[in-house]
Hints:
3 domains; 15-stranded mixed β-sheet; 42% helix
Amino acid sequence: MKMVLLAFYLFITIWSLISIIFHGSRPTKSISWVLAVLALPLAGPLLYYLFGVNRRKFKLFKLKQTERRKLYDSRIQELNDYEQFIEDFDSQKNARLSQLVKSNSLTSAYSGNQVTLLNSGDETFEAIFESIGNAKKFIHLQYFIIEEGAIVDRLFALLKEKIQEGLEVRMIYDSLGSFSFRGKAIERFRHIGVKAHSIMPLRFGNLLFTLNYRNHRKIIIVDGNIGFTGGVNISDRYIKPEDHLGIWNDFHLKIEGPVVNSLHRIFIKDYHFSGDEKLLLQKKYLPDISSRGDSVVQMVISGPDSKHPAIMQQYVTMINLAEKSIYIANPYFIPGIPVLEALKMAAMSGVEVNLLVPKKSDSLIARLSMFSNFENLLATGVNIYLRSDFSHSKVIVIDQEIASVGSGNFDYRSFEHNFEANALLYDRILASRITDEFILNCSDAICLDYESFKRRSSWRKFCEGLAKFFSPLL
């Protein structure tokens, strides 16, 4: 028996080391995994398999759903039903960013959109419930977190009313992020006629394949011509304090216009692989949409089924294109070397770089890992502000010209493992309004001083360095 266990241990250890050598994309990350595999018998290889394998390169065991999603993309790309609304940029900056996103996300930039900025949970939910209340045909919802509470109860009552009026309602949710939303909680929605499905459910047979790959998107589509997306989940934590973090603050968007077609296709694809209906790619659900406003918007789509890490590429490109200023707000700023180096180079070349993060976090390891990067950033001239409340927004604005609002964090999980969606706003007015809000939030935040920060205790630096080892898992 001992020989069998020893042989099994040697096999999985050697397999893990060979896999790291063949598929490792970053030397520092690969070394961390090698140390984990060697230092933690059995547990190290298991952790690597769950959290370290890059599904874009790993071929020995293929996640069937991921392969099917890639095939779906190759067969059904975005239909150019709205050629008259596809934006042909005069600005070289906008054109380069738009072409990148078109290449890695297969989506176009559309003009003729009306975008409403929603800067709090109260604003967001009031706008959502108003649109749902006015729905005439169907309502589609997709969320990472759906939690029991006052917001869910209000949503349930409204959806029940709309179903009684004859509307179709579909809902998809992440099985891990919405872990508490199961059993009776979800069955009451199904009982009234909501077609509800979990995305990549946690089951014994596929747990090792799906645990690390979560759907982090937040999307609502009403009648095919109104869309909502951003960072707000279906949870009471956005309207009332539930713990030491207080009320979560987040940016969200209400979008009307041709780009809703792109946003809806994200939902349709995810629903296709989680539900039992295959017929949503039709005019009934993708109606012709006339011009509603003056904003140019493009959706950025990324996930473990993507050929490229689109969210990371979007952020790095925006940083590199900035000429005057960069404003970033994010709760989990653990971006890795490419983004960190891009920010340092921008600051050193004279671009004003501002980073707003929450002083408190829902994860101690994530907070320590985030703070481990601050000394080097401060040394190059990056301005870092600590906000007293839990700012959950995922925002980047460059030159007060282009803004991104969505679900993508600045961390390995959003770059490599999660299904994410960001809305790129090529709109100076909207970008300036988001910048003004950013500056207002910085006015009562703590501005870190380089000299003071680098004098933090050795114990604090040790804890930050230790937490940094776990950054690929966060």
